[in-house]
Fold these 3 entries.
Entry 1:
Amino acid sequence: MTHPAASRQTRIHAPLLSLSGITKDYGAVRALKGVSFSIDAGEVVGLIGENGAGKSTLMKVLGGVIEPNSGSITIEGREHAALTVQQSLGAGIAFVHQELNLFDNLDVAANVFIGREPRRGGPLQLVDNRALYARVKPLLQRLGCDFAAHTPVAELSIAQCQMLEIVKALSLDAKLIIMDEPTSSLTTAETNRLLDVVQALKQSGVAIIFITHRLSEIERCADRVIGLRDGSMVGTLARHEIGRDAMIKLMIGRSLKTLYNPPAAPPGRAVLELEAFATRTWRASEVTLGLRGGEILGMAGLIGAGRTELARAIFGIDAPERGTLRLDGTPVAIRAPSDAIARGIFLVPEDRKHAGLVLDDSIARNVSLASLNAISRGGLVDVKAEHRIADEQRRALRIKTPDVDTPAASLSGGNQQKVVLGKWLCMQPRVVIFDEPTRGVDAGAKSEIYALMRELADRGVAILMISSDMEEVIGVSDRVAVMHEGAIKGILDRDSLSEASIMHLAIGNVLH
């Protein structure tokens, strides 16, 4: 016979949140297929899946943005067929989105409590700024933010703005915080600080759903992992089962080792050479470097080491301070991106949405942007030629879209990156610079992008890959150049690649 006290204990314990049989249809497409899971107070659940797996749709259901076709949502014992946005907020569900939602004409404190500002007494009900700043200050301290409550948001960096989004969620006194790619714009130190905050929130009883493509972060913070694939739950990993290979298998059904492709042949001669090359950001430092045809040269270094600045100078966005750039042994002057493009030097930028794409334009328009002269007659674009070229790239790169008239904004991160690449592939590249090529991209799309990079290299193209993902650098590169304060501290061959050897150079040590 069960003891009465034990029976009461069983009844008292209930999940903070339960989803049961959640489905969502968009016309004939079923985006969610009977998703069911629960999360306890003080639990961190990693939610993983490729772009298009249903993660965003599921989170919109939880946020009250969309209504499911069937299923139920139970929060602290209260069942709902669907939630409104106000019901979601009232139930203590807060979101930290990858896309920033801030007013840059206001200061930090005003952004945190916008619409919820403390008011003074009297008929005018003016904002009580002293109380407002007093409420925000401890939240900033809790996250270790390096900006003040009165700092204008326009003066914050992207990373600081991401931290501010997290402060906003904390200000809601939430019971469940959904973090969607919260570290995508953070430095290593800021990421570590955020993961410490996640643990502190967990200890205080806050539940967290942590969504990220950076699987190492889930390894560090998650108590449990839930995998989605094609709108369905495909499995759960307990704490002791969480590992990168297990998570990738859950997402894409195949092993981590299949993501990387070995070179088909040894690299050729130097295609791009830099000699005593200095950027305006690092005027006191110089880069001497050779990039060979048929190789993927990884470029590693800490944030601010000068990697992106070097890429911008090579591509002609910023004029170099001094030095020589040789292409196929001949010195060339790259004064603008048009000079680089004319010589077959192309850049796939880190910020594809702002620097690589015109989001409101179609795939066809984006693919043809750099080659308009080749498909224009009398100053008018040959639309048939434009569509033909774009459709060739769509099929070659396996861009998931029904047609090339689809706006670039509607594509997943991986498919957007393929559109940026397609823009250059129709123009006979000699050198392609990839700056953070898989930032915000799921494991399946990463595999395809790595394969495309290797295919280019096997065709004799010289690839320079800038990446902050250590596993990516080691897995993809044939050699790795490591930068520190605007200079190359050393170049590592594939046989000597390791996290330790790269970090040794990244912090300013030299090879012995």
Entry 2:
Amino acid sequence: MTDFWFYLKEGVNHILDPDGLDHFYFIISFCILYTFKDWKKILGLVTAFTLGHSIALFLSGLEIVSINSDLVEFLIPITILLSCLNNFWILLKDKASKTQLTTTYILLLAFGLIHGLGFSNYIRIMIFDDDSIVLPLLGFNIGIELAQLLIVTGFLAIISLFYLLLKSNIKWVRLLVNVSICLLVLKMLFE
């Protein structure tokens, strides 16, 4: 069971690592449109991303899938930009339809696959000595889910505070955060 806790901590550290801000930006980008009252939607979105991440890590851990790491490192910021573009579309329309929410779930699942592939080389090295990849991947992915939910909770608390202060101007705060993420991600792409 100590292995499980080790991998759970590794999953949490993977998301909260200050050198890996791409995860932070991505998580903020897909929860920017919501408040605490939308917790079921947010939980579904976070889980869709983690599911995609888990599938990619599992397939990579079994050496079924392998992809050029440079390509994946280029695609990760692209996924964040696409998430932000989706936000612009919804913010400018002032409301997300059920179709857009379904599309967002599918996008997050696909983006989770890409983000998981970005970490696949490390996970293969990390679980190399284990007979089974199930326990390490389970612990790691639960750690990822917990860290993502921690970030979402913190961000929603900040958005709620802005909502209390600005009421009807919250749309502009969301747009500003979205633009900021876009600029930071564009910088990542050029680096």
Entry 3:
Amino acid sequence: MSINITVEELQAAGFPMGGEPLVALDLADTVMTVKDPPIDLIGDPAAGAAWWNIQARRLPPGPTPDPAAARRLRTAIRDVLDAQVRGRTASAASVEDINATASSVPRSPRLVTTEQGVRQETRWHVEHGGNAALAAIAGEVIGLLASPERLGLVRICDNPDCSMLFLAENKRRKWCVGNICGNRARVARHYGRTHSQDT
């Protein structure tokens, strides 16, 4: 889907990061893996509902995904993307979880007549089970992994205290979001310059 959301919209709802071109990246970023234990940003039912409500504009219509199924897909996506960024092999179980989720809801192209003419849309066949939103997210990550050029743009935030992933469509981008990790880096550089001059 081509509908965008902004990081400001997600931050207003209490999420530090988001608004990436792919919902799959936003979902991967709902767990802060550098914390011990990791922090699940959608683990609380109210937070999870808020996140899914914001993302719903970019996903096929249907019920909110089951939290356990969403966490399982998120874990698989996080594993395969971390593997790519860190140069290791992803778990075969993670790859299979993504494939299974993507195939859980068949889809088909459909022509629709509108006042502007004929256009194509996707019909999600949920009548036999599965969740269209999770299937769409799994399909996004498959498309990303199958595109070496686009996959090469996936980065992890340069802030060592951050684990967020992003698509660096601007090659100079180093941080997940400029108003959090970018500001922290600028403040640290300024502090280092001003305090090194004092000694």
